[in-house]
Amino acid sequence: MTSLLSELSATAGAAFAAEGLPVEFGQIQVSDRADLAQFQCNGALAAAKLAKANPRAIAEKIAARLRDCGLFADVSIAGPGFVNLKLKDEVLQVRLQRLAADPESAAPGSGAGKRAILDFGGPNIAKPMHVGHLRSAIIGDCLQRVFRANGWEVTSDVHLGDWGLPMGQLISHLAIRRPDLPYFDPADRTPYPEQSPVSMDDLERLYPEAAAACKADPARLEAARQATLELQAGRPGYRALWRHFHNVSATGLTREFESLGVVFDEWKGESDADPLIPEMIGKLKNDGLAVMDQGALIVAVAKDTDTSEMPPLILVKSDGAVNYATTDMATILERVREHDPDLILYVVDQRQHLHFEQVFRAATKGGLAGRAGLEHIGHGTVNGKDGKPFKTRAGGVMKLYDLIAMATDEAMKRLNEQGLATDYPEEERNRVAKAVGLAAIKFADLSNNRVSGYVFDLERFTRFEGKTGPYLQYAAVRIKSILRKAEGEGYKNAAPVIRSEAESKLALQLLAMPEAFLAAETKRAPNLICDFVFGLAQAFSRFYTEHHILSESDEALRAARLGLCRLTLTQIERTLGLLGIEVPERM
Ligand code: ARG
Fold first, then answer.
1. What kind and span of H or E run contains 455?
2. Cα–ligand 1 centroid distance for 255 (angstroms)
3. Among 158, 352, 359, which residue has the most ligand 1 atoms within 8 Å of its CB, making it the best to mutate?
4. In testing the pocket of ligand 1, which one of 270, 333, 348 has its CB within 8 Å of the most ligand atoms?
5. Contact 250 CB / ligand 1 (< 6 Å)
6. pTM for the full model?
7. How far out from the chain centre does Cα 85 lie?
8. Residue 164 near ligand 1, beta carbon < 6 Å
9. Which of 534, 520, 505 is nearest to 439 (CA)?
10. Backbone phi, then psi, for 554, in 5-degree steps?
11. pLDDT per 10-residue tile (average), the chain, 587 residues
């Protein structure tokens, strides 16, 4: 549908056009003085500059036309020429009833016919996921949901880190620890065993050992480098062993992402781009963009306008191995070839900004990106109370799994404190606690500006008051309970009506959904979705406090209010759905 705001802008635009002024000046926005007006139009000021006229005089003419159009209960002029607007209740009511008849129509449809690839999560195989990957997963998942809701065709890819030095470190370490295994004999001994020689637990133990050994001993590091090189060159035993690392890790990682409620379309990794590396490099060499420099193959990406140092991108290291940048370059070629996307978004820690800037410049120079826009959607870190990246009490990296368990425990504590879900069957209580814990983590993460870091504080995140995930879940659950009781009484729903200030405020908030969804998409800003749903819950809360619903004796009015409850619930649930937050049936 066309949103209320765009409909009003069109009306005001027509008023400007009728005065011989550009329609764009008719842009309407939600009033920043909600106590004075619902909407405002500031176009008269800019129009006055253009027409070299008095802004108030122009505002008068526009206001006169808007008074005549029949939509507004009040049109007034403030300050140097702002036009303040308030809709007639019956006009608002028609729009509200249209929305109630088709709540899906609130999606802006901005992505129709467009394709995006979302690269997020990005865990490294053989290592457990940690909170650093948590933000990428939560933000990336929210963006994939927002883009889809807005009509984009989205392909999400976890882009596993599976082709660098850690693989060689593991292989060379295992060669020492388990020389009996068949993978280290240089001769091809295909077929290799189908059973993995290591479990996820083994990998989690072996990798830190291997990394420590390489750090302490240059000979071990050299062996790891050599193994990485041979793996990449296709040594059969190493490839077979690597395949096991890959599969064992992917199984573990899928489980972790699932417990977070995050699903990917593709489980590709750096290694999948390997077959395209020669072609990518060949192309850049042919174009004279990739050149040898001190034994390495590099692409210069600096520009005259750079204000800070922009080192060249290294495609092939002097030892012959490819690296993170190389696989990212080849992955662009692969994605463009497979999907021909309009956009590729990389939801990755802000600290990798330089890497992406180098890759994007080199890919653009080399014509690898086709028509796709390439964007790094950076995010800040999750910090402990000391302001440094979040750690366990023992000082280790906090695993995602443990984090979710901690949040579930804290949520259970809160539920008990509030006397919520207390008499439910054990299984349901646990389910509710997990949903509340996840909502707490996700909302706290998403409601922050994406680029800033934040302090991980479960005590605060799990509160049922304030701007938190649990508060919003509870708001939705409360509406569910009203509707359930109404159904029990045999009360009917009807199209919502507007009879009061609280109802009109709630209607305005409901009708602002398309703009909120669109802004979250164009700014890649999940926090705007959080702001919107919080505003909606607050508007509902006021309506709920000021009006009788179940106890309303006027049957028609009660039915209309129940209709408003139902519409609000639908939109709160849909919006929380974009944040990856589930609403329990009761609590
Ligand atoms: N594996 C990387 C890391 O843990 C993140 C990958 C992000 N995606 C990409 N295409 N580079 O830092």
1. strand 454-455
2. 19
3. 352
4. 348
5. no
6. 0.95
7. 34
8. no
9. 534
10. -75, 110
11. 90 97 96 92 95 94 96 96 97 98 94 98 85 92 98 98 94 96 92 95 92 96 96 95 94 90 96 96 97 97 96 95 96 97 97 97 96 97 88 77 92 96 96 98 97 94 97 98 98 97 97 97 98 98 97 97 98 98 97
